[in-house]
Structure formats: structure tokens, C-alpha cells
Write a structure and sequence with these properties.
9 strands, 256 residues, nine-stranded mixed β-sheet, alpha+beta, 24% helix
Length: 256
């Protein structure tokens, strides 16, 4: 199978899984019901994340949802890893992602530098959440994963405020082709008590609550991995707030 065919197969399979998950008929919880849950876990890796305490703004926009595919750390230069990106709009971007050019565009880059997708800097804040091995470059990790054994995993949260060129991330990501896929948007309305801060907090609480049990080990198949985490997180956000999904992707943007 050629690299091009492999990538096409990977994306089709992922889109089928993600679309099926968001079509799930699980009853949607109200925002107030979701806030009654109490989470006590605090082992989420947020070493390069900013605090969300008192994270309120004068203006509110929607939260845009993306899936980003990138190479595994220390792995081949093909996009095998997936993460969820939540982008907080400034108040001036009240329109839905479907009405914006990037809403119908799949972005493909030859580099793993997030700054190559310049339009992301138009968002007030970006949050990246993913699940990866605790020691991804350790030879024993590669051997265990290649033999379909489990390894210790960690959940990671990274955030940026109009600065997606943070040099500290360059060594934490693999090198090679990356793809950014718009999923949809979550509407925020202060009058209903739903803000972008609420959406981000829900994502972090969901992640933290599963660190010590559900997502303690990572396994390529027959276990939890980066794709299952992304789908689980999208399901949670969809159940609590509802994700208005992108209707179609009718453009591919290739770049360096």
C-alpha cells in the first residue's frame, strides 16, 4: 500500500468512526446537569498549559472543534496520531464554522509546525488535548506497541493565546505530514450560562476524571489510544452542548 493510499484509508476510517460517534443517540445532558458532576482527579499533564481559573471574557464567540492528525513522536513521518483542538473565537466571530472558509477546508502541511496554519492565530485561544505514551521515544515503548502490548499513557493539554509558535512544543511532536480537519462548532450563549470557558472546563474535567483508570494504559488495538480518546471527548462535548458539525469538506489546502 502506497503512503498516499494509506493516508486516504486512515482518514476515511477515522471519519467513519467520528461521524458514527457524533450520530450517537445518547440523550443530550443539560449544561446544569453536567456541572453537578464532581471531579477530583488532577493528574492531567498541563505542564505547558495556562490555568483556567477566572477564565472569563467580555465577549463570547463559538468554540470551534478540529481534529489534527500528525506523526507519532519518534515514529514514521505519516499522520498516525490524532488530537482534539478547541479554538475559542473572539466575540467578532459569532458566525458558525460552516460559514467560514476553514469550515469546509481540510488543511494538509508537509511540516508538523502548527504555525503553518496561520488562520489559527485569528482565534483568541487554542486548546490541544491528546493521549500518548508516557515515554514515546523510549525503545521499549516502540517494541511493546509494535507487539500490540500496552504501555503507560498520559493525557496532555496544551494551550496558546494567539501564539502558536511556542518553541517548547517543537521537540514534543513528530516530524512529517500533518492534517487539520474541521469537525464543527459549539455555540456559546451567556444568557443561557454557557461560555467558552464552560466548554473548555468540561473538556478538562472529562479528561482529568479518566486519567487514573480509563486512560492509564495505551494500546494500539483492543484498548484505549489517541483515536478512542478523541472520539470519547467529542462524544462528551456533543452530549453536553451539542456540536454543529461541518456539512461537508469541499476543499483541500496543501502547503509547506
Amino acid at each position: 500500500m502506497t503512503p498516499r493510499r494509506y493516508i486516504q484509508f486512515l482518514f476515511v476510517a477515522t471519519l467513519i468512526v467520528a461521524n458514527g460517534a457524533l450520530q450517537c443517540r445518547t440523550p443530550r445532558r443539560s449544561f446544569q446537569e453536567s456541572r453537578t458532576c464532581v471531579y477530583t482527579h488532577s493528574r492531567l499533564d498541563t505542564s505547558i498549559s495556562s490555568s483556567l481559573a477566572n477564565h472569563e471574557h467580555d465577549t463570547e464567540g463559538n468554540v470551534q472543534v478540529f481534529l489534527r492528525f500528525s506523526p507519532l513522536i519518534g515514529g514514521p513521518p505519516i499522520p498516525l496520531h490524532v488530537e482534539v483542538i478547541l479554538a475559542e473565537d473572539a466575540g467578532k466571530h459569532k458566525d458558525n464554522i460552516e460559514s467560514k472558509e476553514e469550515g469546509s477546508t481540510i488543511y494538509i502541511r508537509k511540516t508538523n509546525n502548527l504555525a503553518s496554519m496561520a488562520f489559527l492565530n485569528t482565534y483568541r485561544q487554542l486548546h490541544r488535548l491528546d493521549f500518548l505514551p508516557q515515554n514515546p521515544t523510549d525503545p521499549s515503548t516502540v517494541i511493546r506497541l509494535a507487539s500490540f502490548q500496552s504501555v503507560t499513557g498520559k493525557l496532555r493539554h496544551r494551550t496558546y493565546s494567539k501564539n502558536i509558535t511556542a518553541p517548547s512544543d517543537a521537540k514534543q511532536d513528530g516530524r512529517g505530514i500533518t492534517v487539520l480537519l474541521p469537525v464543527g462548532s459549539i455555540a456559546t450563549e451567556k444568557k443561557n450560562g454557557v461560555t467558552s470557558s464552560n466548554v473548555i472546563s468540561t473538556a478538562l474535567e472529562f479528561t482529568n476524571s479518566r486519567r487514573d483508570n480509563v486512560y492509564d494504559d495505551l494500546r494500539i488495538i483492543l484498548g484505549k489510544n489517541c483515536l478512542s480518546f478523541a472520539v470519547d471527548l467529542l462524544l462528551e462535548l456533543n452530549n453536553v452542548y451539542g456540536i454543529k458539525r461541518v456539512g461537508s469538506w469541499n476543499k483541500v489546502d496543501f502547503g509547506e
